[in-house]
Protein 1
Amino acid sequence: MIVKVLHDAGLKSEHAYLAAFASIGASILSWNASTQMESASVARADRWGIFIGEWAPTFMALGVALAQYEKE
């Protein structure tokens, strides 16, 4: 099971939760940077923000899985 492998490698649920919140911040930063640094439309900045923002639910789900594994 992937959760066991990640836990054995030293990844804890707190790390996954931290990564989720960091990806939310990175999503906002990438959107802002894209609007400021590129001459492309806002739609392109939105795509960058959404792409990175999609990582947060994955990290949250991983955190929940690791938390359940840690309780066992």
Protein 2
Amino acid sequence: MRAVHDLEGKIVATELVGATRRYLQERGVKAKVEFSWGATEAKLPQLADAIVEVTETGASLRANNLRVVETVLESTTQLIANRAAWADKAKRRKIEDLRMLLDGAINALDMVGLMLNVHGDNLAQVLATLPALHNPTVSSLSDQGWHAVNTILKESTVREIIPRLKEAGAEGIVEYPLNKIVL
């Protein structure tokens, strides 16, 4: 299939039945649109001729040797409050708390935490190697002269930074995923 018009008379599996029907109708394509209960990409080619799938990265599509023919719609996430709820002080606080936590999850998407130990003789060199959200946290360890360093950085930089940290004298380097970064 090369274009949406190639779906004429075909079966399309999707969780987005209404949006898919409207999209096809607007383009004058008559196809049978069927609701799909999960794993829609696995329905091809035995149960459907094409799929309409919600995807963020397209990794699942590529893993199943599928390709995007057309984009049906693009969406953004929005937090919407009812006016009456927003006017209620207790409900407004809950809404604002939820917004802050959602923002924190979004802020953490491409970030990781990094912690390591370093002897005081090498601390300046290690700190010079580290980009950070602000400044790394440095704490003294119970072993005299040693420090723990904790920071947050872009996940895409870790592959290059960890070897440089090791060269600068860092030990016990741990990378960990983040769920939220509340700024």
